[in-house]
Design goal:
With 514 residues, the chain is of the alpha/beta class. It is built from 21 helices and 16 strands. The longest helix is centred in the last third of the chain and has 30 residues.
Length: 514
C-alpha cells in the first residue's frame, strides 16, 4: 500500500512506571503518525509491553506480586500515560498475549531454525540483567555495564544461539547503501563500526530454571524459554497481523520507521534485521535513534535524586506545554536537558507570550472591531494595499519548511518555522495598528487586517496540530472549524480560506503566564 506509513515506538519493559524518556519517545511517534495522516496517508502507530524475562521476575519478587499481575499493573500505567499525553496508539501488543503474539514468535523461531540459523551450545559470559544482554569485556566501562552502570554477572549455561555472524556482510551493505536507513548519521557510523569489528552469534534462549517458566517456551525443548529480545522485537510484526491476519500483515509490513532510544539501537539495527533476513521478511525502511533526556546535564538516576516524574509534570503544567518543551528543547537525534527553571522560561517566552498572546490578541480584535465575526473582504489580493500574504510570513513557505523538517525528523526546526509565522503575525498587528485605523473610521482596512490575522490562526491550527493537538483543537473551536480537525484531518483543508461571516467564539487563555 503506497499511501501507508507504519511507525513503531520501542517496546518498553513494564517493570516500573514510565519515565521522561518514554514521554519523549511517545510524543515523537505521535507527531510522526499525526503528520502522516495530515499528509493524507494511512498511518498506523504501535507499541506494546515487554513482559517476559528476568527483569519482570525480579520486579515482581520485589513487589511480592505474581509476574502477570505486575505486568498488568504497569501496562495499565503506560497506557494511561500515553492517554494523558494525547498519544493514540492504534495497537498495543502485549508480550503475554498467547492468542496473537506467542504463536507468531514461535513461527518466526521455526523459520530461522529451518534456515539453519539456530543451534545449541554451552556459553560463559558477562550478563547484565538490566539490559537482558551479554557483554564483552571491552564493551564495559570501568568493569560495569555502560547503560546501567552495574557490574554484570558471570553466567555459564547452555543456550540456543542465532547465527548473527552469517549476516555480517549483508547487513553492512544494506546499511552502508542506505537500504536500511539508520538516523542520525552518527548512529549509522557506529552501527557500521560495530558490524565491521566482526559479528558474533548471540544467545536467543535462557534456561527455564533461571526464568521460573516465565516466557515463551522454545519449540521442541521445554527446558528453555526464548530470549526476551527475540520475543519483544517480534511484537512489531504480531501487532499488524503476522501469523493471525496475513492480509493485514501484507498491508502494513515492513515498518516504515522504528523509533528507539540510543541504549537499544543495536538490537534494532543489527540483531532484528538479521533475524528478518534469516526468516525471509522485508526489513524496516528506517530506524530513528533518539537520545536521552538529562537533568541539569546529568543522566537521570534515582541514586542522584534527579529523576523527573513525567506524571507530576503533566499534572502541574498540562499536556501540550510538556510536549512542546520535549520537542523544542530536546534535539530529536541527540541528548537534551530538562530543568524546571528552563521549562518555565520556554513556557513563558514561546507559549504564554508567543502563541497564546497572539491568539488572544486576534480574537479580541475580532470581537472589538468586526462584531465577533470573520469580516467580508474582497478576495482579490491585488484589490487592497494591505497584502496579507506578503505582510504576514507566507504560510506556503511555512508549510514547506514544516514538511521538510518533520520528514527529516527535526522537530525543533519545524517548530521554529511555525513560530516564525507567529512572530510575523504579531509584527503585522504592530505595523498596521487596527486600533488606530478604528479611530480614523477606516473599516475596510480594519476588515482586511482582522481577516488576514484570523486566517493566520486558521493556518496555525493545522501547523501546530501534530505537535500540540489539544491547543490546535482550542484554536479550531474559537474559529468554528473544529470539525475540520476532529477526524482524519488533511492539511490541504488548511489552504481553504476562513469563511467570512463565521462566528468567533471566546476561549480561555491558552497558556496563562507562570
Amino acid at each position: 500500500m503506497a499511501d501507508k506509513f507504519y511507525v513503531t515506538a520501542a517496546i518498553p519493559y513494564v517493570n516500573g512506571l514510565p519515565h521522561l524518556g518514554h514521554t519523549l519517545e511517545f510524543t515523537i511517534v505521535d507527531v510522526i503518525s499525526r503528520y502522516q495522516r495530515l499528509s493524507s496517508k494511512k498511518a498506523l502507530l504501535t507499541s506494546g509491553s515487554d513482559e517476559n524475562g528476568q527483569k519482570i521476575l525480579q520486579a515482581a519478587k520485589k513487589e511480592n506480586l505474581p509476574p502477570q499481575k505486575l505486568a498488568d499493573k504497569y501496562t495499565k500505567d503506560f497506557l494511561a500515560h500515553a492517554k494523558q499525553l494525547n498519544v493514540n496508539f492504534d495497537v498495543w501488543r502485549r508480550g503475554t498475549d498467547k492468542k496473537n503474539h506467542w504463536p507468531g514468535v514461535v513461527k518466526l523461531w521455526q523459520r530461522a531454525e529451518k534456515n539453519g540459523d539456530i543451534y545449541k551450545k554451552k556459553y560463559q559470559g558477562l550478563y547484565c540483567v538490566g539490559c537482558e544482554q551479554f557483554y564483552k569485556k571491552g564493551e564495559l566501562v570501568d568493569g560495569k555495564c555502560p547503560e546501567h552502570l552495574i557490574k554484570p554477572e558471570v553466567v555459564e549455561e547452555e543456550n540456543y544461539f542465532f547465527k548473527l555472524s552469517r549476516y555480517q556482510k549483508r547487513l553492512e551493505k544494506l546499511i552502508a547503501d542506505g537500504k536500511l536507513r539508520v538516523l542520525p548519521e552518527v548512529r549509522k557510523n557506529e552501527t557500521l563500526g560495530f558490524i565491521r569489528q566482526g559479528l558474533e552469534d548471540f544467545s536467543v534462549s535462557r534456561p527455564k530454571e533461571r526464568l521460573s517458566d516465565w516466557g515463551i517456551p522454545v519449540p521442541g525443548d521445554d527446558s528453555q524459554v526464548m530470549y526476551v529480545w527475540f520475543d519483544a522485537l517480534t511484537i512489531y510484526m504480531t501487532a499488524v497481523g503476522w501469523n493471525w491476519d496475513l492480509k493485514k500483515f501484507k498491508t502494513w509490513w515492513p515498518a516504515d520507521l522504528h523509533v528507539i532510544g540510543k541504549g537499544i539501537y543495536r538490537f534494532h539495527t543489527v540483531y532484528w534485521p538479521a533475524m528478518l533476513l534469516s526468516t525471509g521478511f522485508p526489513l524496516p525502511k528506517a530506524v530513528l535513534v533518539h537520545g536521552y533526556v538529562t537533568s541539569d546535564g546529568q543522566k537521570m538516576a534515582k541514586s542522584l535524586g534527579n529523576v523527573v516524574d513525567p506524571e507530576k509534570l503533566l499534572a502541574k503544567y498540562g499536556t501540550d506545554p510538556v510536549r512542546y518543551y520535549l520537542l523544542k528543547e530536546i534535539p530529536t537525534q541527540s541528548d537534551g536537558d530538562f530543568t524546571e527553571a528552563r521549562f518555565k522560561e520556554v513556557y513563558n517566552a514561546d507559549l504564554a507570550n508567543g502563541l497564546g498572546n497572539l491568539v488572544a490578541r486576534v480574537l479580541t480584535m475580532a470581537d472589538k472591531f468586526t462584531g465577533g465575526k470573520v469580516p467580508s473582504v474582497d478576495q482579490d489580493p491585488d484589490a487592497h494595499p494591505l497584502r496579507v500574504d506578503e505582510k504576514i510570513y507566507n504560510w506556503k513557505k511555512a508549510w514547506q519548511a514544516i514538511d521538510q523538517h518533520v520528514n527529516a525528523y527535526e522537530f525543533q526546526r519545524a517548530l521554529e518555522a511555525i513560530w516564525e509565522f507567529v512572530h510575523a503575525a504579531d509584527k503585522y498587528i504592530d505595523e498596521n495598528k487596527p486600533w488606530e485605523l478604528a479611530k480614523k473610521g477606516q473599516q475596510k482596512e480594519i476588515d482586511w487586517v482582522v481577516y488576514g490575522l484570523l486566517d493566520s490562526l486558521h493556518q496555525l491550527a493545522w501547523q501546530i496540530y501534530p505537535f500540540l493537538p489539544e491547543t490546535a483543537q482550542k484554536v479550531a473551536h474559537a474559529l468554528s472549524i473544529e470539525k475540520l480537525l476532529a477526524k482524519n484531518p488533511i492539511f490541504k483543508d488548511s489552504w481553504v480560506n476562513i469563511k467570512p461571516g463565521t462566528k468567533i467564539k471566546k476561549i480561555k487563555p491558552l497558556f496563562p503566564r507562570l
